[in-house]
Design brief:
Blueprint (H helix, E strand, L loop, with lengths): L7 E7 L6 H9 L18 E7 L2 E7 L9 H18 L6 E7 L6 H14 L3 H5 E6 L1 H7 L9 H7 L2 H9 L4 E3 L7 H15 L7 H6 L1 H11 L1 H17 L10 H26 L6 H51 L1
Helix pairs in contact: 2-10, 3-10, 11-13, 12-13
């Protein structure tokens, strides 16, 4: 058995609740360090760390609890950032590998894809390619599924045959994948899977504080994107409120008051549009509110033009009326002289 060249390895366990993160941590350390649950749980667990030794390698394992996927996207992201930052503090923002724990035999869901998106957004866009090892749990199910396979399909062959989003993840992490049977009592199997894991750790790029600092922009960008539904809801409510303020032509007995109201409303629309552009112009989700504000501005300008036209007509009528009044007065004066 080939031993790892490293004398020390720090690994972070990440993934959705129910995939077997804690059980995997226990298998790596060969002791019951982390509390396991039978399936998905809504309880908020703490980030935990423990240490063990395999051959001459000291192992530091940090278990990041999964986040309840029934929460809103911004809540999931916020809790994920909190958990990962706590984990990073436990290892001085340095680790050897990030273990992405997936469950063999389970469909790769949108929740799994979202979790990976969050990992990239928190730790940097290159973290999957450079630092991740995919750990597939329920290795005993894999063995059972392939007992009758005449081609003797290996685990890596199975990984290369996958399609869809999970294939993209395997390719992105350079197929650094290992199968774990956390229920096995066979010491040879338990040691072999740890050895395979440590061989893959040697192929990863160690994560550093500098890499985390460089990912600040990614974290800010993803934080904004996860808040998109709330931002859009607020924007739509504000636009509706602005539209309701448009006065009706003829509703005011004082024309100048109407003009002032429209002009002020036009300024308010421009200010709000500039605010959205300044904060979110680079984001796709803000395009529709900006278009709605452009349409609203056109509506207000149209009202102003109608007002201006009516004002011109009114002035012309006033001049005509004055002329008629002056003519009538002159006729009266003429009659009196006669």
């Amino acid at each position: 058995m080939e031993q790892s060249k490293s004398k020390e390895a720090t690994v972070l366990l990440v993934g959705n609740t129910g995939n077997g993160k804690s059980a995997t941590g226990n298998s790596i350390l060969n002791k019951q360090s982390f509390k396991t649950t039978a399936g998905p749980s809504n309880a908020i667990s703490a980030v935990t760390k423990d240490t063990g030794v395999y051959n001459d390698c000291t192992l530091y394992v940090i278990d990041c609890p999964g986040v309840d996927t029934e929460r809103s996207p911004d809540e999931i992201f916020s809790l994920s950032v909190e958990n990962i930052e706590k984990a990073l503090e436990m290892c001085s923002f340095q680790f050897s590998a990030l273990l992405l724990v997936l469950k063999y035999g389970q469909r790769f869901t949108q929740q799994e894809s979202n979790a990976i998106t969050n990992i990239r957004g928190i730790l940097g866009q290159n973290v999957i390619r450079e630092c991740v090892i995919c750990v597939l749990t329920y290795g005993d199910d894999f063995e059972a599924d392939n007992e009758d396979n005449k081609d003797d399909l290996s685990f890596l062959d199975w990984c290369q045959q996958q399609e869809g989003e999970i294939k993209k993840v395997f390719q992105e992490c350079m197929c650094r994948c290992v199968l774990f049977n956390n229920r096995s009592k066979d010491e040879s199997i338990k040691r072999l899977q740890i050895s395979k894991l440590l061989e893959l750790v040697e192929k990863t790029t160690p994560y550093t504080k500098a890499m985390y600092d460089n990912a600040q922009g990614d974290r800010q960008r993803l934080a904004t994107e996860t808040q998109a539904p709330k931002i859009l809801q607020q924007a739509n409510a504000t636009i509706k409120e602005l539209r309701q303020k448009i006065p009706s032509i003829g509703a005011s007995k004082h024309p100048h008051t109407l003009e002032d109201q429209l002009s002020k409303l036009l300024i308010d629309v421009e200010i709000y549009k500039e605010s959205l552009m300044r904060k979110y112009e680079e984001y796709e989700f803000v395009k529709q509110p900006l278009q709605d504000l452009t349409i609203l501005r056109m509506e207000i300008n149209s009202k102003l033009k109608i007002y201006e036209q009516n004002s011109k007509i009114g002035r012309a009528q006033d001049i005509t009326q004055l002329n008629e009044q002056e003519k009538t007065a002159n006729n009266k004066r003429y009659c009196i002289i006669l």
